[in-house]
Each structure stands twice: as C-alpha cells, then as structure tokens.
Amino acid sequence: MVVLCSSSFLISLFKGLTHVFCVKINVSLLVVLLILFLNACTFEGLVPENSIVRPELSNSLLHDKIWLGVPTPFEIKHTDQEEYFIEEIDTETKQIIKRGKNQYSILIKKSGEYSITILNAANEIVSVRHIKTKYLPNLIPSFCEETGNTIRRKQLIYCLENNQGIKVTSMNYDVDITYRVKQFELVTFDKTGQVIVTKAKSEYFNEEQINQLLNLKIGDRFYIEKIIVERQDKSEQELKIMRFELQ
C-alpha cells in the first residue's frame, strides 16, 4: 500500500499525534508513528539524481586518447566500493582484458572513435565512455635494417660508412610514422668481459662508438639500449634493448 505525503495526510497525522499526546500514550508509540511518517515520505521519485553512482573510466595520463595497438590500463572510479565491469569484446578492432577488480587493459587495433560500456553486477549498463584513438605507440627501433639478433660484419661496416643511425618506426595497422631519436647508449665488452658503455646524443653513432663497433670480432655481442624517442606530442619514451651478435 503506497502512502503519499499529501497535505491531507499531514493534517491527519498531526491530529493523530495531538490525540496521542492528549491521552498520554507512551513515547514508544510516538516514535513508531514518526518512523511511519518518514517512510511514507521516502519513495523513488524523491531520490536526488546526483546520488546515483555513475562510475567512469579514468586514465589521467592519456586524457581519453588510446594509443593504438598497446594495452592501456584503465580503472573505474567513483564506484562506492562496488565492483563494476567493462563489457568484454574481442573483435578485429577492440579487445578488453580484465586485470583485476575495476582494472582493465584495452587493446585498440585501428584508429577512430570507440565507446567503452561499464556494467554493474546485474549486467546492467550504468555508464558509457567515448574515447578516441591517437597514433600507434608500439615503436620499433632498428639499426642497419635489423631489429636485433645477428648482423653480418660487412653489413655493419656498410651501415657505419654510410652514417646510418638508429631508426624508430611504427609500421603497423593503419599508421606509418617515423620518430626522432634523441639519444641512445651502445654497450660493448672488452677482452676481459668488462662492460663499456658510451652515449650518443642523437640518432647517429659518434666517433668513439664507431671505433668500438669496428673493433668487434666475429661472435662478439653488442647492445643498443636506453633509446629515447620524442613522440609527436613532444613526450619522450624509452624503447626496448636491441641485442646483436656479429657474424
């Protein structure tokens, strides 16, 4: 039975309370009547809309921009201690991977605009977040047309004589971009196995590094690491190590 907080109801309740007071009914009955009054005045239409939890995805580093082809960590915020879920989709363009409570990785494979749907435990849609993809971030360093493993001595000499430096590209999906290398380090080893580290402040090998590479013997190893590139948005990123063995 639904009771509304109309003026007639309030008048009737007031009269009832007056009667109760006049006949000196005990305080416990008065408390019961007050509880009934409060319950009668609480129904769905009076719940403030801003009290409804609307969880949102949060990633302050990317500002709603998804880097193509790389899992991007997201968290669901304003959850009021309740667990929410991102609709898991595995398609040619988008894959969402659950990493933990309210934590996900999102893999976008093509540029464009996408929506991420947040569900509650009852599988009901409670929020939809629209995001845009930017450019491909899985940057690929290379030297002498190689990304690592083995390199022939003649090939190495040719690349050094022609002043070929470190290149970084992203030639996947629908984006093809070359990035500027700001610095890198060359790691070689002397006859006793001691590590020698030299730093270049551009994409090109300096004279000291070139001499070290020319002095390598067949079977020697060298590494190119701490490759710092500048993105189009002027942010910097350190790339993976390239490992080489001279053949």
Task: Describe the protein's architecture and organization.
The protein is elongated. The chain folds into three domains: 7-49, no CATH class; 53-133, Immunoglobulin-like, CATH 2.60.40; 140-246, Immunoglobulin-like. It is an alpha+beta fold and 247 residues long. Strands 9, 10, 11, 12, 13, 14, 15 and 16 form an eight-stranded mixed β-sheet that branches. A four-stranded antiparallel β-sheet has the order 1-3-6-5, with no helix packed on it. A four-stranded mixed β-sheet has the order 2-8-7-4, with no helix packed on it. 19% of the residues lie in helices and 36% in strands. Strand 14 and strand 15 (236-239) form a beta hairpin. Helix 1 (7-22) packs antiparallel against helix 2. It contains four helices and 16 strands. Residues 40-51 have low confidence and may be disordered.
Defining traits:
alpha+beta; Immunoglobulin-like; 8-stranded mixed β-sheet; 4-stranded antiparallel β-sheet; 16 strands; 19% helix
> How many individual β-strands?
16
User: Could you please say which CATH topology of the largest domain applies here?
Assistant: Immunoglobulin-like
Radius of gyration: 33 Å
CATH class of the largest domain: Mainly Beta
Shape: elongated
Low-pLDDT sequence parts: 40-51
The helicity comes to 10-25%
Oligomerization:
single chain
Structural class: alpha+beta
Percentage of residues in DSSP E strands? 35-45%
Specify the biggest β-sheet: 8 strands, mixed
List the domain count as a whole number.
3
What sequence of helices (H) and strands (E) makes up the elements? HHEEEEEEEEEEHEEEHEEE
Number of helices: 4
Distance between the termini: 88 Å
Please give the CATH architecture of the largest domain.
Sandwich
Mean pLDDT reading = 77
